[in-house]
Design a protein that fits this description.
The structure holds 2 protein chains of 2 kinds.
Chain A: H1 2-37, H2 44-51, H3 55-61, H4 65-88, H5 93-106, H6 108-117, H7 123-149, H8 158-174, H9 176-179, H10 185-201
Helix pairs in contact in A: 1-2, 1-4, 1-6, 2-3, 4-5, 4-7, 5-7, 5-10, 8-10
Chain B: E1 3-4, E2 11-12, H1 41-56, H2 60-71
Helix pairs in contact in B: 1-2
The chains are: A mainly alpha, B mainly alpha.
Protein name (chain A): HTH-type transcriptional repressor
Domain HTH tetR-type (chain A): 20-80
DNA-binding region (chain A): 43-62
């Protein structure tokens, strides 16, 4: 009996392992496809094709398209906030904004989709964007409070300090086709935007 | 090893990031009460919503809704 149970258990755990791998693979391929074709326009059939699985396999792992989209966006949010935290922890305003640009540049195509299509997406996707912004505003506000007290930067309301920066970066990202056709926007303009912004806020 | 705060999602690396500076804790310094216990759902929701209003300028109710949505993803509050 024990022996049979043992034999039986092996393929089961193999199957589970495989299932997990397929799921992970689907999320990765969906991430790339959504960055390429857009969060609204990408079809599950295209994701299946890119992942090299049947269309039905996608729905064996995710009951609906929205469920897959939410999973990909959540996964993305977790990765970006982790990266921002890694890069930005405890630095000056200058260092934090530099880290912010660096973190975004690593995920620019997908992040741009999220910025452009955010208001059309399910609520969970918008919440992820706010979560990413919260990771940035958390580090920025801590550094800004220190530097305002030290007279390094001007005393400005925290939300406007943050939104002025985000507004600038997002405007360039959302119109990347005009600012930097076919090439990453932040690589080309990041330094200029950062220097300009620091000039505005410096006391 | 880096942990993620179960109550707000903040990555915790240094002892100072943890509640009471204790890396064995699963929640961060910002989610702890003064006595070291973890804040309640309502306390955390209030502080998160206020933080979003203060640092990002969102409408109060919109910030509260977003905070609820974010918290629903975290192990401490997941249903």
């Amino acid at each position: 009996m024990t022996q049979y149970a043992g034999v039986d258990e092996m393929p089961e755990s193999q199957r589970q392992k495989q299932k997990k791998q397929t799921r992970k693979h689907l999320i990765t391929m969906a991430f790339n496809q959504l960055a390429k074709d857009g969060l609204i326009n990408t079809r599950t059939a295209d994701i299946a094709k890119a992942a090299g699985v049947s269309h039905g396999t996608v729905f064996a792992h995710f009951p609906t398209r929205d469920a897959l989209l939410t999973e990909v966006i959540n996964e993305f949010g977790a990765r970006v906030t982790r990266r921002l935290h890694e890069l930005a922890g405890g630095g000056s305003v200058h260092e934090i904004l530099e880290a912010h640009l660096k973190g975004l540049a690593e995920f620019e195509p997908f992040y741009t989709r999220l910025v452009r299509e955010g208001s059309l997406l399910p609520e969970s996707a918008r919440n992820t964007l706010i979560m990413i912004q919260s990771a940035v505003s958390f580090h920025l506000s801590q550094a800004a409070e220190r530097e305002m007290a030290a007279g390094i930067i001007r005393r400005l309301p925290m939300h406007l300090l943050f939104n002025t920066w985000i507004g600038l970066v997002h405007y360039y990202l959302a119109n990347g086709d005009l600012f930097s056709p076919g090439k990453p926007v932040l690589e080309r303009y990041g330094k200029e935007l950062l220097e300009h912004y620091l000039t505005l806020i410096t006391e | 090893m880096m942990k993620i705060c179960i109550a707000c999602g903040m990555p915790m690396e240094n002892p100072a990031d943890f509640a009471m500076g204790d890396p064995d804790k699963d929640f961060c310094v910002h989610c702890a009460r003064q006595d070291g216990t973890m804040q309640s759902y309502e306390e955390k929701l209030d502080s998160l919503a206020n933080f979003i209003v203060r640092t990002q300028g969102l409408d109060k109710q919109a910030a509260r809704d977003a905070a609820k949505g974010m918290m629903a993803q975290l192990p401490a509050w997941k249903k």
